[in-house]
Design goal:
single chain, alpha/beta, Beta-carbonic Anhydrase, Chain A, five-stranded mixed sheet, 11 helices, 52% helix, binds cobalt (II) ion
Length: 211
């Protein structure tokens, strides 16, 4: 793969600005007036996941949080602040948790080869594997095992969103955004909606909030 140089990136930027302005004179003026994105996107930091390209969305549509292996960590201040801001101030309508096949974080968790802090970061994924070991080990190839773990990781992270106090509060107020679980297949470019059913976690959140 050929990488753009820093100079080329700046040049690309100028060309893109010129093209946007030619299409719509007020494009940047409008953009500068503020954001009201309908989506919060939580995904992996992987460089291949060029969000706006994969989804055909424009700047201003996706509010984004990314980390290694798209973790929804209840002790991550950065994530919690983003979730809070997205739900309370931006009033996003949808939260998308997107994992991907071929994820290095998933692989690191399964192989146990990560060293230092990454090993700590991916530990929740190892926990998923240990809980679903029978199901995962029954799959014929390593690739399929890693892919299934990537899917199960997305499902757990969707569940984790319902464990946050901000989500429970917004459910109680009947303002909660819908939560979706996706996996991006980098080998085909296609997004797979896992159609995660969130009803049970919604109910559980409401019960917890009532006590
Ligand atoms: Co990844």
């Amino acid at each position: 793969m050929k990488y753009n140089s820093i100079e080329e990136i700046i040049k690309n930027n100028r060309a893109w600005v010129a093209q946007k302005q030619a299409q719509d004179r007020t494009y940047f003026e409008e953009m500068a007036s503020g954001q009201k994105p309908p989506y919060l996107y939580i995904g992996c930091s992987d460089s291949r996941l060029a969000l706006t390209k994969f989804t055909g969305t424009e700047p201003g549509e996706l509010f984004v949080h990314r980390n290694i292996a798209n973790q929804v960590s209840l002790t991550d201040m950065n994530f919690l602040a983003i979730l809070n801001y997205a739900i309370i101030h931006l009033e996003v309508k949808h939260i998308i948790v997107a994992g991907h096949y071929g994820c290095g974080g998933i692989k690191a968790a399964l192989e146990g080869r990560a060293i230092g802090i990454i090993d700590n970061w991916v530990n929740p994924i190892r926990e998923i594997y240990l809980q679903k070991q029978e199901e995962i080990d029954a799959l014929p190839t390593k690739e399929e095992r890693l892919n299934r773990l990537a899917e199960l990781n997305v499902i757990l992270q969707v569940k984790n969103i319902y464990q946050t106090s901000i989500m429970r509060q917004s459910l109680q107020q009947q303002k909660a955004p819908e939560v979706h679980g996706w996996v991006v297949d980098i080998s085909t470019g296609l997004i797979k909606d896992l159609e995660v059913s969130t009803k049970q976690w919604q109910l559980r959140s409401l019960v917890a909030a009532a006590f």
